[in-house]
Design goal:
The complex is a heterodimer of chains A (220) and B (402).
Chain A lengths: L1 H26 L15 H14 L1 H6 L1 H25 L7 H34 L2 H22 L5 H12 L10 H16 L3 H16 L4
Chain B lengths: L10 H9 L11 H6 L6 H16 L1 H6 L5 H13 L5 H5 L6 H14 L11 H8 L27 E4 L2 H6 L1 H14 L3 E2 L11 H5 L6 H14 L4 E4 L2 H15 L6 E4 H10 L12 E4 L3 H6 L4 H8 L5 E3 L22 H17 L4 E4 L2 H10 L8 E4 H10 L4
Parallel strand pairs in B: 1-2, 1-3, 3-4, 5-6, 5-7, 7-8
Classes of the chains: A mainly alpha (220), B alpha/beta (402).
């Protein structure tokens, strides 16, 4: 029961946070904001180039290739792991979703390795200066989540039907018993912590990266 | 109602503040970090703290913990944001593409509006500019006279105008003298505003977050050039060029009636069309330093190099970091007077590298760099001859007595 209460508290917090962020962004059409005069591309081309920048992390590739490798692998594997997890949340996913789940399975293996690799790359520069406490916490959190996920997938397999019934029950207010696994509870609770701690760059960085491309092309 | 921390930000800036991943890649390039090593004043920390200000006052956390921010935290942040040289290399290397060269002035403006900034002598700038038309408190009558080349004609009206800029006029006179000599050598008819009419472009006010006078200054200047029938406004100061190209349209209220051109662009065009001939050579190893607001600001990177390569005999070498990744000279962000030690230490990094690479001369194209690098060589064992790009060109064209 306590896990369910925690889940609803987290969801309410996320809802309020989301609404407040949307409100802030909508309000931020400040009269005090400075007008930027920037030359643009023809629309389709800038969308395409910016999209490539976002997908392949071109900016990071340009300045730190070893780190880029770890970050890109992590983000892409994380994306597929999340997509694969949607099968626990949604009913009626198309049959081709099984391919996504399959990629997500490999993503789940790549994820902890890429995170450890990121830590090693950062530590090889200067541990104290180049790892912020927030960043370190997030990486450790993700490592724990991914390891517990791998444990449930390959060592102590969970009954997917139980998991799905529990998770969908929360969203449909048709509460179902918590699957009987300490590892699952651990994984699930850490997932909630991640939701609370999810960095805002997940939502905004694609926009700023796309905008940066326009800026780079600015010439007098 | 109490002022909020997002009030002075547009959607772009707010998204940027939220986009910082705290990866700290910027720390490896930040010149202030290079000389101070203080992580607490690093770009990523400034963004984290400002984000914290927003969360403390305008988020769910504000409802729970209250909206107060300790005064000391605000003061420390203000100092950090004003200690920056606003060179923008942090934004250039930012994986999230945050436009820091534009963001820092806005955060500075916020602190000014809260009565916490600017710092040191920067606070006197608006009054000094209002009284003298320049931030150096120098008489307008001395703006051109001490350095202007003899027998150089200024047309009353012309399609090309030359804007000197305050730093060049009062602090780096060989540089602006070189500009005028090159315009003269090109043989183009050009105009200039009268000494008392050519006021500050507004950059020092913009960069220190004191924006009140900007609209008046910009309108005055743009209308004056418009009345002279100007189609191209040539300027050598990267800060002025950046301000004119990016911000003047906003403060003027519409697109400018003329084009902004950096002097190296103008000179290169003249070289290519044969209007400017370089008959004499120069057997020297030159190293060119990219000014932050010229390279990262307005993308002028190739033209100065092409100008230098057009001099017969010149061997052009590069800094380890050049172009959009170039290192600040330390003079940027109106911080060079207030945080003098930082500025000198940063400038010495470039001097060291120029010496290490065996350059005969360090070529600059910014009056602030010119002044600061000169300053940094005082009482410093390593020396490199410095020269402005147009000063060098005029020396070659007119001889040593240019």
């Amino acid at each position: 029961m306590i896990v369910i209460v925690i889940t609803y508290i987290v969801l309410i917090i996320l809802y309020i946070k989301g609404v407040m962020n949307v409100f802030l962004l909508c309000r931020a059409d400040s009269k005090e904001s400075i007008y930027l005069r920037e030359k643009g591309y023809p629309a389709p081309l800038i969308y395409l180039i910016s999209f490539i920048d976002v997908i392949f992390f071109r900016r990071l590739f340009r300045i730190n290739k070893p780190l880029w490798l770890g970050e890109w692998l992590f983000h892409i594997s994380f994306l597929f792991v999340i997509l694969a997890h949607l099968r626990f949340l949604l009913i009626g996913l198309p049959s081709w979703w099984s391919h996504i789940v399959c990629i997500g399975k490999y993503g789940g293996i790549v994820m902890p390795f890429s995170l450890v690799y990121i830590l090693i790359v950062r530590a090889s520069i200067d541990w104290r200066r180049y790892i912020s406490p927030g960043n370190l916490f997030l990486i450790l959190l993700l490592i724990l989540i991914s390891l517990s996920g791998l444990f449930m997938r390959y060592i102590n397999r969970m009954d997917i039907i139980d998991v799905k019934a529990f998770v969908t029950g929360i969203f449909t207010f048709n509460l179902q018993p918590l699957p009987d696994s300490r590892v699952f509870v651990f994984h699930y609770l850490l997932g909630l912590v991640l939701l609370l701690y999810l960095p805002s760059h997940v939502m905004t960085a694609p926009i700023t990266v796309a905008e940066a491309r326009r800026r780079e092309e600015f010439r007098i | 109602m109490k002022r909020t921390f997002t009030e002075g930000l547009g959607r772009k800036e707010l998204a940027e503040i939220k986009a910082c991943t705290q990866c700290r890649e910027c720390l490896r390039y930040c010149p202030v970090q290079e000389v101070t090593g203080r992580v607490e004043i690093s770009p990523s920390e400034k963004i984290r703290i400002y984000r914290d200000f927003i969360e403390r006052t305008e988020s769910l956390r504000a409802l729970i913990t209250g909206r107060d921010i300790p005064e000391q935290l605000l003061k420390d942040f203000t100092r950090a944001v004003f200690e920056c040289t606003t060179c923008g290399v942090c934004g250039e290397v930012c994986p999230a593409g945050i436009d820091t060269q534009r963001l820092w002035p806005l955060l500075r403006r916020e602190m000014v509006k809260r009565g916490l900034g600017p710092v040191g002598g920067q606070a006197e700038m608006p009054e000094v500019i209002r009284n003298t038309g320049n931030p150096y408190n120098q008489p307008p009558s001395e703006r051109y006279r001490p350095w202007f080349p003899d027998e150089t004609e200024i047309a009353e009206k012309a399609e090309v105008a030359y804007y000197v800029g305050c730093t060049g006029a009062y602090q780096a006179q060989p540089m602006v003298r070189g500009d005028v000599l090159i315009l003269k050598a090109i043989g183009i008819e050009f105009t200039m505003l009268k000494e008392e009419e050519e006021v500050c472009c507004g950059f020092p006010l913009f960069i220190t977050g004191q924006h009140e006078l900007l609209e008046g200054l910009v309108k005055r200047l743009v209308d004056a050039y418009k009345n002279k029938g100007v189609k191209e406004l040539v300027c050598s100061c990267p800060c002025c060029v950046n301000m004119m190209a990016k911000d003047w349209p906003f403060y003027y209220g519409k697109e400018l009636p003329f084009k902004i051109v950096h002097v190296t662009q103008y000179a290169l065009k003249a070289i290519k069309t044969g209007k400017l001939r370089i008959d004499h050579g120069l057997e020297e190893r030159l190293i060119y330093h990219d000014p932050c607001y010229l390279s990262r600001g307005v993308g002028v990177i190739k033209e100065p190099r092409d100008v230098l390569r057009s001099i017969p005999g010149v061997e052009l070498i590069e800094f380890d970091r050049w172009g959009r990744l170039s290192r600040c000279c330390g003079a940027g962000g109106a911080a060079r007077k207030v945080f003098h030690d930082n500025a000198v230490a940063i400038a010495r990094l470039s001097i060291d590298e120029a010496c290490h690479r065996g350059a005969d001369r360090l070529v600059l194209s910014c009056p602030a760099c010119y002044e600061k690098v000169n300053d940094a060589m005082k009482d410093y064992p390593k020396k490199v001859r410095i020269v402005d790009i147009m000063e060098l060109l005029s020396e070659i064209i007119y001889g040593q007595n240019a």
